[in-house]
Design a protein that fits this description.
- The protein starts with about 25 loop residues before the first helix and ends with a strand.
- It contains 17 helices and 14 strands.
- Strands 6, 7, 8, 10 and 12 form a 5-stranded antiparallel β-sheet that branches. Strands 11-9-13-14 form a 4-stranded antiparallel β-sheet, with no helix packed on it.
- The protein is of the alpha+beta class and about 475 residues long.
Amino acid sequence: MSSQDAEPSLYAAREPVFPKRVKGNFRRLKWWLMGFMLGAYYLLPWIRWDRGPELPDQAVLLDLANRRFFFFMIEIWPHEFYFVAGLLIMAGLGLFLFTSALGRVWCGYACPQTVWTDLMILVERWVEGDRNARLRLYRQKWNGEKIRKRLVKWTLWLLIGLATGGAWVFYFTDAPTLLRALLTGNAHPVAYTTITILTATTFTFGGFFREQVCIYACPWPRIQAAMMDEDTITIGYRDWRGEPRGKLHKTEGAGGPGDCIDCMACVNVCPMGIDIRNGQQLACITCGLCIDACNEIMDRIEKPRGLIGYLALTDETRERAGQPPKNIWKHVFRPRTILYTTLWSAVGIGLVVALFLRSDLDMNVTPVRNPLYVTLSDGGIRNAYDIRLRNKLGSDHAYALSVTPDDELTLRIEGAEGNVVTVPANDTLAVRVYLEAAPDSTAARTERTEVRLWVSDAGGTATGDSRVHHDTVFNGRAK
């Protein structure tokens, strides 16, 4: 087959996107959010929080070695993973809520891919210049200038990636200690591996892939359509006002030209490289930069702002008919968003209540089933139980064990004087407990008796709810 008869390729080479610098309200908002989020990410591991001599003083710490999560005054233990699950559910519902109300506002302002891409583009602009300068550099042949600028840019990108990966590992162990170990080459290989992987992914995703991650790798653009309806506020082009496009001072024809002078400012500032005038597109992340660019042009040509802006389909229909748009609160508060808000609030309130009602002590009881019971020499019945006590306090603490009904059963702890044991600070203690019933008691003559094991504060210094119980069964002689 000749080259002339070959079928055309369905895939085109990627055209790099070089967004132009723009000023405006949405660009300022993105700078502030980027500064806040990056600052929080990089600085949180270095904030100290005094929890006492037995606990780490890092404010935010995922202590995998000791299987605990610290967030300022909150401490989450492994068996309390429902807190993490609840936070993930709240994050999902929050994403649904904001998408249904304001479109892809998460993608445009808070997504890590967007934030780090913004940072990489900022560095690129510092090194290579604004859009036209970067385009010229991209098209020119390799020479000393191009090599120098690319090496400087890539070095800065690598440093950003290194800071990103380094900050991540600091969340999992004491940050100052790990930093010293990293600098002296004494850190665990897992730390170096994690930093290397995150450095590489940040460097490539934020520096080179950019919008391609949003278009081809992220599933959210394809899911978010299910969250949106005709009342969702998103970015749109008012074509009934902008069309037909015409150059400034162009002689008016039939109907006259619209407000759009086809300056391409909205396209040149778009980090996704799309033309918002073509309507809603999967690639649009609703970052608002096209609004800033268009408003600046409208100010220059003395036309009203808002040719490109946030609007809903219902407002578009009303404006076409010459009617004022709906009040913004009618868009935000509607059945779908109210449902998401209700569910989000319910989960949040439930987590807060559970957080304040949880005890400083946990007890787990496992009956010994082999054998179910032992007949003593005097005819009495004895059952054995393995009990695990978890002390969540920052100091060793004494706890007393008891049983209900105590008039039927006698409790004895193996290897302990009395019914009091001391549990180490922030640790667990496993003990073997025996319950004994007299030969003529009801519990000894009954096949199964419901009992309740109690553990309570014996030192008088515990905080919060220091008395917990666990229901189990006492096995007597079978009939």
